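Entry 14. Ran structure prediction on the chain below.
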Amino acid sequence: MSNFNRIEIPIPFPVKAVNIYLIEDSVPTLRRTEALPVNTVLPGHGQVFSHPERRIAKIREHHTLRREEILRILRSAPDAGKGMTLFEITMTVFPQLKAWDIFLGMSETVGHLEILEDKGLIQTRVTDTLRIYEAAR
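Output, structure tokens:
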């Protein structure tokens, strides 16, 4: 499969009970923000900017491209029939992550995986200790 060590953690909750990142929940907020008559944005961090509709379009594009990347990873994995864990997918998407940032990457990745699963593009199965993701057949 890969060079990643598997991290096995018992799953103490129903598989879809926790959605850490809630990427899909940000879509209505982006729509409402896009509809506002705003010329200048004063973000909580980063530079002041104008034309928020451009930034919103970039955010949407980023999420679309990230989901496409994850789907490509699952379809082209050397052992695609065996599937991949969240950790394996995350470290393939974000190989540079270390320490706490791995959790943040996993949070983003799981949000995209849930959307892909809801769209029927991937499927999951749960073993005694792992949730395995694979491209839908």
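Helices lie at 26-35, 52-76, 86-93, 100-118. Will compare against last week's run tomorrow.
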